[in-house]
């Protein structure tokens, strides 16, 4: 099989705790591109926080951001698809987070908003390298297009309550979960419109390219990557991935610290 599209998760897949990909990963991506293979990102991150990475890797293609709500080429600025959350649903989630004292962020295309200052807000500011907007979330301007909401917590009780809230509102919202390398106890719970996912984003990008899903490789490490791995012709779990992700993958690569992405490209694209 000649693969034509490779979609990479960012945190825990392309990047570890460093802000840039390793030299061998950069080299493998460049050689794959030289052979005509399109490489894109498939991440829950805010698009703007990936700008430097996209430019460094010359990813002149559509990528999946916010776990599927924005499909955009950051080099050209072109948007393929955008899926915002309805404002009433956003306000309902804000009220829930307030009542439960759970840290919550609202992500727009250009920024993120929060109102609860704690260790999580400090952590996010450091990781995202993007100046947040401190705001009263109960009075968010309806003109804001909220592409994703994100809970950050280390509390199993919070996770249970978020899951219960989602079950009550499953006709409107869906969840995807993620981890940060080096912070195994911290859970990032993404809230996006129902029917939207990383996997759906890959479908839409492949359709735009005019290729079949069997020609796609997706690589990830977290529970939020599973549907992307299952959609792609070859779904790859990183060696540092959660066991549930490895069980659903077609292939398990080396860890992010061992340049697993380079291994996959060498084995399935460049060989």
TrEMBL record:
Q: Which SUPFAM superfamilies has this protein been placed in?
A: HAD-like
GO CC annotation? cytosol
Quote the Pfam families the UniProt record gives: Hydrolase_3
Top-rank taxon: Bacteria
As one GO molecular function, the record gives: phosphatase activity
Q: Which CDD domains match?
A: HAD_Pase (cd07516)
Q: Which residues cross the membrane?
A: none
UniProt entry keywords in alphabetical sequence = Hydrolase
The record's InterPro entries line, in alphabetical order, gives:
Cof (IPR000150), HAD-like_sf (IPR036412), HAD-SF_hydro_IIB (IPR006379), HAD_sf (IPR023214)
Record's NCBIfam families? Answer: Cof-subfamily, HAD-SF-IIB
Q: What is this protein called?
A: Cof-type HAD-IIB family hydrolase
């Amino acid at each position: 099989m000649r693969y034509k599209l490779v979609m990479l998760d960012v945190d825990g897949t392309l990047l570890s705790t460093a802000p840039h990909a390793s030299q061998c990963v950069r080299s493998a991506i460049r050689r794959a591109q030289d052979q005509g293979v399109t490489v894109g990102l498939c991440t829950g991150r805010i698009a703007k926080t990936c700008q430097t990475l996209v430019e460094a890797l010359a990813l002149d293609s559509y990528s999946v951001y916010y776990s599927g709500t924005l499909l955009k080429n950051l080099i050209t600025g072109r948007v393929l698809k955008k899926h915002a959350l309805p404002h009433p649903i956003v306000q309902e989630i804000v009220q829930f987070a307030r009542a439960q004292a759970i840290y919550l962020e609202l992500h727009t295309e250009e920024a993120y908003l929060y109102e609860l200052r704690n260790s999580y807000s400090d952590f996010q500011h450091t990781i995202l390298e993007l100046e947040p907007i401190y705001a009263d979330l109960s009075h968010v301007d309806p003109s804001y297009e909220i592409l994703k909401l994100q809970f950050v917590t280390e509390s199993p009780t919070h996770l249970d309550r978020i899951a219960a809230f989602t079950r009550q509102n499953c006709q409107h919202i869906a969840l995807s979960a993620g981890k940060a390398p080096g912070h195994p106890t911290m859970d990032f719970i993404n809230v996006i419109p129902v029917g939207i996912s990383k996997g759906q984003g890959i479908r839409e990008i492949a359709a735009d390219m005019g290729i079949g899903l069997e020609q796609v490789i997706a690589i990830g490490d977290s529970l939020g990557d599973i549907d992307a791995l299952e959609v792609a012709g070859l779904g790859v779990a990183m060696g540092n991935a959660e066991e549930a992700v490895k069980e659903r993958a077609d292939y398990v690569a080396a860890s992010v610290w061992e340049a697993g992405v380079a291994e996959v490209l060498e084995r399935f694209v460049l060989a």
